[in-house]
Amino acid sequence: SGIDIRQFAQSPIPKGDTIDFLMIGRIIADKGVREFAEAAQLITAQYPNARFHLVGWLDTNPSAIQQSELDQWISSGAIKFHGKLSDVRQVIKDSHVYVLPSYREGTPRTVLEAMAIGRAIITTDAPGCRETIRHEKSGMLIPVADVKGLVQAIQRYIESPELIDEHGAAARARAEDVYDVTKVNRDMLRGLQDLA
After folding, report:
1. E strands within the chain?
2. Measuring CA to CA, which of 36, 146, 153, 176 is 20 to 30 A from 103?
3. Distance, CA of 33 to CA of 72 (rounded, Å)
C-alpha cells in the first residue's frame, strides 16, 4: 500500500483557538466510531476548544451504526458530521489530529493520507493500524475498543499542543520514507522481477 505524496501534499497545521480531531470511514462499529463519539462527548464537556469531525457514510454492514444513533451524536453538538466526501484533502488540512480507532484494518488508506498531509495520528494497536505509525513519534497507539485510552491520547494533544506539530512532521517524513507510492511500486516491481 502506498500514497501519492504529491497529491496529498504536506499542509501547515491550522492556526487558531480550536483543536480539530477528524475521523473518516464507514459508519460501522468495527471502525471504532462509537468510541470516537463517546470520547468526543467526554472531551468537549471538559475542553470547549476541542472539535470533532466525522466524514463517512452509513453502511449495510451488520455492525452498521443506525441513523438514529448518528443523529443523537450530531444533535448533542459533540460531532460535526460532513457526510461522504469525494475528496478528503481539505477536511484533513483543516484538522490537527487524525483519529482511526478501528478494531482491524488492512493498511488504512485514510491514515496514510493524513500522514502525507502532515497530521499527527491516533490509531489502535491492532494489525494494519499499528504498522503505520511509530508510537510517541508520529502519533499515538491506543488499545482497541478503549474509550479511556482514546480520551487520554486526545488530552495529550490538547494539553501539549506542541506534539501536534512534532508528530505531524514525523508522520509526513514516515509517509515519504515508507509509503511513497513510487517507492512502493518500484519495490513491488523489483520483487516481481526477482521471481521471474
Report:
1. 19-26, 50-57, 80-83, 97-100, 120-124, 139-142
2. 176
3. 13
Distance CA(37)–CA(35), nearest Å, equals 5
| CB 168, CB 111: distance < 8 Å | no
Residue 123 main-chain phi, psi, to 5 deg:
-145, 175
Element (H, E) at 143: none
Could you give the CA distance from residue 37 to residue 79 in angstroms, rounded to a whole number?
A: 7
3-state secondary structure of 134: coil
What spatial distance separates the first Cα and last Cα of the chain, rounded to whole Å? Answer: 22
Q: Is residue 135 classed as helix, strand or coil in its secondary structure?
A: strand
Question: Tens of pLDDT along 105-155?
Answer: 989 999 999 999 999 999 999 999 999 999 999 999 999 999 999 999 999
| Cα–Cα distance, 49 to 159 (Å, whole number) | 11
